[in-house]
Amino acid sequence: MKAFFRRFTLGRLAVLIALAALTLAVLGCAPAPAGPAPSSSASVEAEGATLDEKALVGCELAYKIMRIGLEVAVDSGQLTGARAERAIALDDQAYSALLLARAAFGRKDAEGYAAAVIGALAAIDTAALSIKGDPA
Amino acid sequence: MSLPDILKALQAIGPVLAAVPQVQEVFRVAARLLQGDEEVEVNAILDDLARDNDLGHLRLQAKLAQVASGGAPR
């Protein structure tokens, strides 16, 4: 599996997808994509797993943009009532998924990390849709 | 994606969100990472982001709960 890992893998892909697609989705400027292209690879450079922390940074950045978007929507009065209630659950799911990615990174669990990063980005994407009012 | 693409994305997200300093910082961080700046201390960025997101999550949840129950955001 390590033979397939490259430096420009999940790390930069996560950052690019997180910023390009999810940022636009947060503001409703474009439909959110189905999610990041599944990639089970994480950059493991050596036995003992030096995981690509940039993938986790991508998740953190994506979550940050999403939650700022939600907060702006709340502050401007666009997100209220039942939609706000739904956003609570979706934000919580996104945050929990982010925590899983952090935990997998901390455990140096390469396989779990890749899956957790993908799961986190998907959950963040779903939460971002709640701003537009799209069913997730 | 290149740095100009990031700038275009920043413009595309709308003036309200683009004007938020935190969002601009997100793009600056991403740009530095994409540039492969060897001086970028990724772990330090990660720690700062994690702390910020932890606090931000709590703040967001509180605001959402407030408006979901019919109140005004604080």
Question: What can you tell me about this protein's structure?
Answer:
- The complex is a heterodimer of chains A (136) and B (74).
- Chain A is an all-alpha fold and 136 residues long.
- Chain A has helices at 10-26, 53-75, 81-107, 110-132.
- In chain A, helix 1 (10-26) packs parallel to helix 2.
- The model of chain A is unreliable at 1-14 and 21-49 (pLDDT under 50).
- The termini of chain B are far apart.
- With 74 residues, chain B is an all-alpha fold.
- In chain B, helix 1 (3-12) packs antiparallel against helix 3.
- The chains are: A mainly alpha (136), B mainly alpha (74).
Brief digest:
The complex is a heterodimer of chains A (136) and B (74). Chain A is mainly α.
Q: Strand fraction band of chain A?
A: under 5%
Rg of chain B, rounded, reads 16 Å
**Percentage of helical residues of chain B?**
over 70%
**Chain pair sharing the greatest interface:** A-B, 42 and 38 residues
Spans where pLDDT lies below 50 across 5 or more residues of chain B: none
Q: What's the shape of chain A?
A: elongated
- Provide mean pLDDT of chain A, rounded: 71
Helix/strand/pairing class of chain A, anyone? mainly alpha
The helix tally of chain A amounts to: 4
Secondary-structure-based class of chain B equals mainly alpha
What shape does the CA trace of chain B take? flat
Q: What's the number of helices of chain B?
A: 4
What attributes characterize this protein structure?
heterodimer, A: 136 residues, B: 74 residues, mainly alpha, 0% strand
Topology of this protein?
The complex is a heterodimer of chains A (136) and B (74).
Chain A: H1 10-26, H2 53-75, H3 81-107, H4 110-132
Helix pairs in contact in A: 1-2, 1-4, 2-3, 2-4, 3-4
Chain B: H1 3-12, H2 15-18, H3 21-35, H4 42-68
Helix pairs in contact in B: 1-3
